UniProtKB/TrEMBL annotation:
<keyword id="KW-0479">Metal-binding</keyword>
<keyword id="KW-0862">Zinc</keyword>
<feature type="binding site">
    <location>
        <position position="220"/>
    </location>
    <ligand>
        <name>substrate</name>
    </ligand>
</feature>
<dbReference type="InterPro" id="IPR006680">
    <property type="entry name" value="Amidohydro-rel"/>
</dbReference>
<feature type="binding site">
    <location>
        <position position="150"/>
    </location>
    <ligand>
        <name>substrate</name>
    </ligand>
</feature>
<feature type="binding site">
    <location>
        <position position="190"/>
    </location>
    <ligand>
        <name>substrate</name>
    </ligand>
</feature>
<keyword id="KW-0378">Hydrolase</keyword>
<feature type="binding site">
    <location>
        <position position="217"/>
    </location>
    <ligand>
        <name>Zn(2+)</name>
    </ligand>
</feature>
<dbReference type="InterPro" id="IPR050287">
    <property type="entry name" value="MTA/SAH_deaminase"/>
</dbReference>
<comment type="function">
    <text>Catalyzes the deamination of 5-methylthioadenosine and S-adenosyl-L-homocysteine into 5-methylthioinosine and S-inosyl-L-homocysteine, respectively. Is also able to deaminate adenosine.</text>
</comment>
<feature type="binding site">
    <location>
        <position position="70"/>
    </location>
    <ligand>
        <name>Zn(2+)</name>
    </ligand>
</feature>
<feature type="domain" description="Amidohydrolase-related">
    <location>
        <begin position="60"/>
        <end position="409"/>
    </location>
</feature>
<feature type="binding site">
    <location>
        <position position="305"/>
    </location>
    <ligand>
        <name>Zn(2+)</name>
    </ligand>
</feature>
<dbReference type="Pfam" id="PF01979">
    <property type="entry name" value="Amidohydro_1"/>
</dbReference>
<feature type="binding site">
    <location>
        <position position="305"/>
    </location>
    <ligand>
        <name>substrate</name>
    </ligand>
</feature>
<comment type="similarity">
    <text>Belongs to the metallo-dependent hydrolases superfamily. MTA/SAH deaminase family.</text>
</comment>
<protein>
    <recommendedName>
        <fullName>5-methylthioadenosine/S-adenosylhomocysteine deaminase</fullName>
        <ecNumber>3.5.4.28</ecNumber>
        <ecNumber>3.5.4.31</ecNumber>
    </recommendedName>
</protein>
C-alpha cells in the first residue's frame, strides 16, 4: 500500500516558524512517511501510488497524543461536578466503578474512542483497572495507537496486590506490540497515596525485570503533599526518588504541587510530565508550574484525564487551555510559546509514551496525521505565518475532517471507518436510560 496525498499545507512540526509549513504532498509506505515534498507530485510518483488522495488545500498536521486518561469511566461524564478530588473519588468514582461490568466498560471505551478520533487524537494512554484485555481488543478494532496500563491501587492485602501486578504483567505479555506495534503497555501504580512503598517497590522490581516503563499520578493536590509529608517526612517526588521509581523510564500525571528541588529531581531523572490543565482546574487541584519545568528542560506532554473530570476529550481545548493558563496566572504573555505548547500534544507526547519516530511529519516517521479544513470563519485569515497560532488559539476538534494512524485512514470527511458512531452513542446513552 502506497498512498500519495497531494494539495495540502503540511505543518511538519520539524522546526519552529513558517519554514516548516510546506505546500506540497506526502507519500506513505508501510505506515510511514516515505516522502514529504514541496510542490506537485510527478507523473511517475502518481503512477506508482496505489491510492491518490486530493487534500484540497487542507492542513496536514501530526495526530494529537493524549498522554493521560481513564477511558473506562467515560460514562460518568457529568456525574459529579463541584467536588474536590478525594471526595469525588470516594463518593462518585469508586462507588460507581464497583458496579461496572465488562459491557459497561465496552460502551465507555468505545464512546471515548469515537470522541477522540473525531477530534483528532490518534494516540491515547489509558490507565484503568477493569477489563484491560477487552480495551486492547477495542483499541485494535478502532485502529488507534494506544498505550494501555492496568491501574493498580495497593490499599489491599499483599495477596491482592500481587494479583493486580500479575494482571498488569500479563497484559504486557499478551498485548504489548499488538496490531503492528500500535498497542503498547506500561505499568501503572495509581498514585503514592494509594500505593504503599512496599507495593511500589514490588512494581519497580517487575518493571526493571520486564523492561517496562511506569506511569502514575503524582503530586496532584496540596492535600496529597501535606499527608505525604506527615506520613513519610518527605514530599511525594522526593519520596518516589528514594523508593527508586525513577530508576525506570517514567511519565507522571499532574505534578501540580512541586518544590524547586522536586523539579530538579524530575529533570535529573528524565521524567516526563503529563500536564492536564482542565482536569486540574475542574477539581480545583491547582495549576502545575509548567513554565518552570519547561525552563528546566523537562518533557511536558498533554492529557485530558477522564471525561468525568474534564469533561471532554478534545485535545485542541487542552492545548488552548495550556497556552492561556500560565500567561494569566503569571501576568506574563511571554512565559509560554505557541510552538512549545503545540509540540506538547505531538512530539513531546510521543516521547512521554516512549514511542519512537512519532509526532512530526517527516520521512521515516509513523504516518499518524490529521487533515484540517481551514475554510471556517474562526480559522480565517490564514497563511504560513499564522497556522501554528490558529492551531493553538482558534482550532477545535470539530475542524478535523480526516484521520490516519500508521498510514491507515480512520476517518474520511468526518465519517468514522472503524467505529460505528451512531451505535456507540446510542449504546452509551442507554447506560442512563435502561
Ligand atoms: Zn487520572
Amino acid at each position: 500500500m502506497n498512498i500519495l496525498l497531494h494539495s495540502v499545507y503540511i505543518i511538519t512540526m520539524d522546526e519552529e516558524g513558517p519554514t516548516s509549513v510546506i505546500n506540497g504532498f506526502v507519500i506513505i509506505k508501510h505506515g510511514e512517511f516515505d516522502q514529504v515534498k514541496e510542490g506537485k507530485p510527478s507523473q511517475e510518483e502518481l503512477n506508482n501510488a496505489s491510492e491518490v488522495i486530493n487534500g484540497k488545500g487542507k492542513w496536514l498536521i501530526p495526530g494529537l497524543i493524549n498522554t493521560h486518561g481513564h477511558l473506562g469511566s467515560s460514562l460518568l461524564r457529568g456525574a459529579g461536578d463541584d467536588i474536590p478530588l478525594m471526595k469525588w473519588l470516594e463518593t462518585v468514582m469508586w462507588p460507581n466503578e464497583k458496579t461496572f461490568t465488562e459491557d459497561i466498560i465496552k460502551k465507555a471505551v468505545s464512546l471515548a474512542m469515537v470522541e477522540m478520533v473525531k477530534s483528532g487524537t490518534t494516540t491515547f494512554l489509558d490507565m484503568y483497572h477493569l477489563h484491560m484485555e477487552t480495551v486492547a481488543q477495542l483499541a485494535q478494532e478502532s485502529e488507534m495507537r494506544a498505550v494501555l496500563c492496568r491501574g493498580m491501587i495497593g490499599l489491599c492485602s499483599e495477596k491482592e496486590q500481587r494479583n493486580k501486578l500479575s494482571e498488569a504483567i500479563n497484559l504486557h505479555r499478551d498485548v504489548h506490540g499488538m496490531n503492528s506495534g500500535k498497542i503498547t503497555v506500561a505499568l501503572s501504580p495509581h498514585a503514592p497515596y494509594t500505593c504503599p512503598p512496599s507495593f511500589l517497590q514490588m512494581i519497580i522490581e517487575k518493571a526493571k525485570e520486564n523492561n517496562i516503563w511506569i506511569h502514575t499520578h503524582l503530586s496532584e493536590t496540596e492535600e496529597e503533599v501535606i499527608k505525604h509529608k506527615e506520613q513519610y517526612g518527605l514530599r511525594p517526588v522526593e519520596h518516589m526518588e528514594r523508593i527508586g521509581l525513577f530508576q525506570v523510564p517514567c511519565l507522571v500525571a499532574h505534578a501540580v504541587h512541586l518544590s524547586d528541588n522536586e523539579i530538579t529531581i524530575l529533570k535529573e531523572n528524565n521524567v516526563s510530565v503529563s500536564h492536564n490543565p482542565m482536569s486540574n482546574l475542574k477539581l480545583g487541584s491547582g495549576i502545575a508550574p509548567i513554565p518552570q519545568m519547561i525552563s528546566k528542560g523537562i518533557n511536558i506532554s498533554l492529557g485530558t484525564d477522564s471525561t468525568a473530570s474534564n469533561n471532554n476529550l478534545d485535545m485542541f481545548e487542552e492545548v488552548r487551555f495550556a497556552a492561556l493558563l500560565h500567561k494569566g496566572i503569571s501576568k506574563d504573555p511571554t512565559i509560554t510559546k505557541t510552538w512549545d505548547i503545540l509540540r506538547m500534544a505531538m512530539e513531546n507526547g510521543a516521547k512521554a509514551l516512549q514511542l519512537q519516530q512519532l509526532g512530526k511529519i517527516k520521512k521515516g516517521y509513523k504516518a499518524d496525521f490529521l487533515l484540517i479544513d481551514p475554510n471556517s470563519a474562526h480559522l480565517t485569515p490564514w497563511d504560513k505565518d499564522r497556522i501554528h497560532s490558529h492551531l493553538v488559539y482558534s482550532a477545535k476538534g470539530f475542524d478535523v475532517s480526516d484521520v490516519f494512524v500508521q498510514g491507515k485512514q480512520l476517518m474520511r470527511s468526518k465519517e468514522l471507518l472503524f467505529l460505528d458512531e451512531e451505535k456507540v452513542i446510542y449504546e452509551a446513552n442507554s447506560f442512563l436510560h435502561s
